[in-house]
């Protein structure tokens, strides 16, 4: 019996990464879920990531401890207010303060290291260039550039033993399309968490960019959002 192909899937416990995991699972990959405790104010997302990993039967769920709060510069890791109640037009103006410096580059680098150790050629990341908050590390050209770099920098790749592929299956999809695709694959979005600024008991604020994009996505999909919001 042939060994099952392996995939490292970056997981925040949110809609996008969970749908990316569902796509990897449906494609026949053995899932290795990778999450980060990086000093984010919404650390409750890791509880969702653990539930998602279990639901998809992940072979392993690894949580890496980083402290990007020491670098700061983001509303997610620093003493900076998370923007609330912004319109879509406002979200599309520039890069917001919720951008974490080099976050996807850091996360993908860890994924790359784990993939080499696992001899897994495939990495899945749930970035989208359509319904997003203007982050530069969610664009197709960024993903392509990282993949090129990955195959130049790994011992196993240079020796011709593996070729890394970075999969971003949602990159051209709207949030509504992502949710519809996930529902087709049987995703339970009640397990997921999206809020950037949850209450002390973990309830979603309902007003940050991430909550608003989530609400918009469910409305577009014509489905009820299972999230309980503070507002």
Supply the key terms.
231 residues, alpha/beta, Rossmann fold, 5-stranded parallel beta sheet, 8 helices, 11% strand
Question: Can you describe this structure in just a few lines?
Answer:
By secondary structure, the protein is α/β, with parallel strands linked by helices. The chain is built from 8 helices and 5 strands.
Can you put this structure into words, describing what you see?
The protein is of the alpha/beta class. The chain has a single domain (6-221), classed as HUPs (Rossmann fold, 3-Layer(aba) Sandwich), CATH 3.40.50.620. It has eight helices and five strands; from the N terminus they run βαβαβααβααβαα. It has helices at residues 15-26, 45-55, 88-91, 103-118, 140-153, 155-158, 175-184, 209-221, and strands spanning 6-10, 30-37, 60-65, 122-124, 165-167. Strands 3-2-1-4-5 form a five-stranded parallel β-sheet, with helices on both faces. Helix 1 (15-26) links the parallel strand 1 and strand 2. Helix 1 (15-26) packs across helix 7. The longest helix is centred in the middle third of the chain and has 16 residues, at 103-118. The N and C termini lie far apart (52 Å). The mean pLDDT is 95.
């Amino acid at each position: 019996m042939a060994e099952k192909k392996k995939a490292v899937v970056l997981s925040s416990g949110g809609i996008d990464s969970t749908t990316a995991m569902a796509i990897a699972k449906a494609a026949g990959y053995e899932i290795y879920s990778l999450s980060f405790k990086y000093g984010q104010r919404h650390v409750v997302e890791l509880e969702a990531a653990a539930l998602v990993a279990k639901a998809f039967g992940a072979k392993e769920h690894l949580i890496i401890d980083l402290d990007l709060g020491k670098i700061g510069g983001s509303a997610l890791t620093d003493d900076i207010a998370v923007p609330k109640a912004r319109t879509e037009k406002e979200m599309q103006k520039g890069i917001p303060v919720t951008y974490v410096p080099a976050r996807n580059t850091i996360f993908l680098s860890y994924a790359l290291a784990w993939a080499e150790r696992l001899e897994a050629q495939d990495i899945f990341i749930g970035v989208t260039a359509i319904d997003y908050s203007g982050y530069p590390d969610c664009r197709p050209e960024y993903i392509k550039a990282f993949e090129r770099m990955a195959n130049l920098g790994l011992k196993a790749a240079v020796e011709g033993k593996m070729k890394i592929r970075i999969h971003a299956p949602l990159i051209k999809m709207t949030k509504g399309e992502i949710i519809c695709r996930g529902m087709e694959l049987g995703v339970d979005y009640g397990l997921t968490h999206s809020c950037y600024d949850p209450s002390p008991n973990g309830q979603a604020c309902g007003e940050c960019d991430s909550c608003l994009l989530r609400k918009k996505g469910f409305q577009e999909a014509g489905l009820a959002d299972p999230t309980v919001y503070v507002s």
